[in-house]
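## tool: complex_structure
## caller: assistant
## args:
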Amino acid sequence: MQTFDLEAQGLRALNSTLHAQADTTNQTQWKIVNPKGSHAIAVGLDAPIEVNIKGSTGYYCAGMNKQATVHVHGSVGPGTAENMMSGMVVVEGDASQYAGATGHGGTLIIKGNASSRCGISMKGIDIIVHGNIGHMSAFMAQSGNLVVCGDAGEALGDSLYEAKLFVRGSVKSLGADCIEKEMRPEHVTLLEELLERGGCNAKASEFKRYGSARQLYNFNIDNAY
Amino acid sequence: MKDEQKGAPRTMPIQSATFSNPVNAEIRRAAATGIYDIRGGGAKRKLPHFDDLLFLGASMSRYPLEGYRERCDTNVTLGTRFAKNPIKLDIPVTIAGMSFGALSGGAKEALGRGATMAGTSTTTGDGGMTEEERGHSNKLVYQYLPSRYGMNPDDLRRCDAIEIVVGQGAKPGGGGMLLGQKISDRVAEMRNLPKGIDQRSACRHPDWTGPDDLEIKILELREITNWEKPIYIKVGGARPYFDTTLAVKAGADVVVLDGMQGGTAATQDVFIEHVGQPILACIREAVRALQDLDMHREVQLVVSGGIRTGADVAKAMALGADAVAIGTAALIALGDNDPKWEAEYNALGTTAGAYDDWHEGQDPAGITTQDPELMKRFDPIEGGRRLNNYLKVMTLEAQTIARACGKNHLHNLEPEDLCALTLEAAAMAKIPLAGTDWYPGKPGTAY
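## result:
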């Protein structure tokens, strides 16, 4: 286990050290202490390493992650795991706005609550939230899966494309073109796998599925030269 | 009619300036269809522009350089503030961001070829980076847009600069739409959306909401890319003084300022013609912001929107820009709107020079399309050659003017080299009206 004191050694040294880890590194276990809410911790990683952050972080923790597992033993600021490509990010506490925004792949697990715009414009990422999510979550979500074990705020899935949304609790309101959809067997199977991956104590049968009505997919855009 | 009125002169029919024929035609079109017009091509109304400025040239008080002989440099370095690897260009004319999807792969390749031959940079666009443009662009700027279509850390690391797009001149405050007919299998895959559906580009970024957030976003991008890449911030011509100030505050290496003539983005006609400012009105305000922050030349200013000639380049630089970017002009150089396709433009209900429905994918020139048959018409090697020629001519023209003003580098052009032909241009560019030493709003004057 490699230990990195962020307060003492600084952000630039941390990220450049983690970026230097190749696919074949044997330094696969990292512990970061004294994060103290710093921004851009462990961003742009691209190696099969596990990074444990002992405390809470600021903006964009684990942004654009590839391959790595980043485990935050605290809460995270806005934009955690934004544009993640692969790997896994686990947040023991709560997540601020835009968690998993535009993520292309990988898994984001939030064991507390997530604030507004969770999964905004997601493009393939799987996001599993043990608690509640805030308003405008999954706005323009393109693909991937969002699982919410608690409640969802206003305008869930507004202008949704092909992402699948599963919510166990209440939904305050659905956004434009987002509708409740039938939970078919393949969705139950998918959700069971996601719940297991996320370590959720919930049954797939307790969830409702939401998706796009596909009424906004083609706009009658032009009648002029 | 009474007998005494017969043969008397009659009131001549007068076309209303307010309800002109084009206005009335648009009212009838709207009434018939119930939908607004979307188009590209930038603002088509007559606007105060670089044509309203003139260079004074050398005279008794200025010493010119010999036209074809004496040295007049054109190089520019962008991104000197924070980036480890600033971009060094041979000429100050760059290629603006235009997406793969909006443009064919061949057109993107041609832009890369032409820009590389001329020693300048090209820019990606909404939709991600293609191998055609990376492979053929010696210097490639990677746009970081609200949609984040195709955004990934590998391409961030293999670009030469990152341009965070906050706004475009054609539509400051607006998003975009790529119509389904242009969403081929390849475009769909790059954007992670189903084939054939319209793809919206959001008007604001998904994970930051203001300049304070943007400062942290820039920190993240710099950390991911090892602080190597210059970070540009592109804004539409809205509030250039404040937008430039905030971009610098957020940590930009380069500010890209796009006036309302910026034409390659498709949006509502009403948006194009009624939102934003002409680039002429924006440059001096942006320069003032940089000067107030003691950042002029430290943070470079790239301006765009209606740049057509070497004279436009020279005037923009005399007003304080470090470089310019071209979009529409580059497409025309490649062969867009060429009269040789007139019959086909007619079939689309338009004419060469007026074709602006680039978003619909039916471009007879094969440039703004994903149609395989139309794309065959465009030769990227020939397109690159034409673009290089055009960029060379623009540069030579700008040098000619600079030498006549006694300047051995385009960057040495200055506002004192100019006069304005109209009051509007004088006021916007803060350049004295021709024949006077005055412009509206000049400090120390009553008006």
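## assistant note: Chain B touches chain A through 45 residues (CB under 8 Å). The first strand of chain B starts at residue 38 and ends at 39. Handing back to user.
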